[in-house]
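yo

u said u wanted the structure for the complex thing, so here. seqs first:
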Amino acid sequence: MIYKQIQDGEHVHAVFRKHWLPFVGTLIPFILIALLPSWVYSYITTAPQLETVYLSLQGSIGTDTLYFFYSLFLFVIFIATFTIFTDFYLDAWVLTDKRILDIEQGGFFNRTTSSVMLDHIQDVTVETFGFFPTLFGYGTLHIETAGGLHPFVIPLISRPNEVKRILVEFQMNARNRNRIPHSEPEML
Amino acid sequence: MTPDAIVLPSITSPEFLSWILIAIGVVWIIYSLVATYHWITYSLSPLTGIIALAVYYLVSLALLGAMISFV
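structre next:
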């Protein structure tokens, strides 16, 4: 479980995920490819000019073998789709009271977890680019950190402006907590 | 003396399809073990992990069953 990575005294406040729309967009070609053989087959069986093709196909291969290979084809597509879903769903960003954890799942054998302390955050930028991101409210969040060579990027996140607001609020709280209390200089 | 010709099974023969089925079965077992491990270990919510795995096993077993019935 990811919560094993949460330190003692650290509390999880929110979990952010990617928006569902880009995932559905990735699925559409798979669905079309899965349906294509059945469309071709139904066209061959119904079109009178292709009757000889249908008869030769049935005579040489057989309907059961065709169905076997179609089931195999659907099986391969389903496995590919499930792998993409795993990649999509197991990607998450966990906000605690001390840091933000980035969990990146790239297939089954590639998993990266990184984190940024909230008081190291310098700037948070929201990028919403394109028709669908604007319409459905998702975008990319760029988090600039102190001393960080590369910005911390959260792509395709749902409600990025709200996430930014929460992040900035938590960043201010973390900075206030870590600030050394100001004391008046002593008069000598 | 000429050596006996090697006769490869036809692509439509039940013997050939059975070999494909065995290969697919082995790959499916390995993939399922890896997928189950990942969803149980890394899913943030156990319920979602169980639902995702249930759907995975249901659909993949149905497709494997369909393949077996057509051999």
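The CA atoms of residues 25 and 58 of chain B lie 15 Å apart. The mean pLDDT of chain B is 88.
cya
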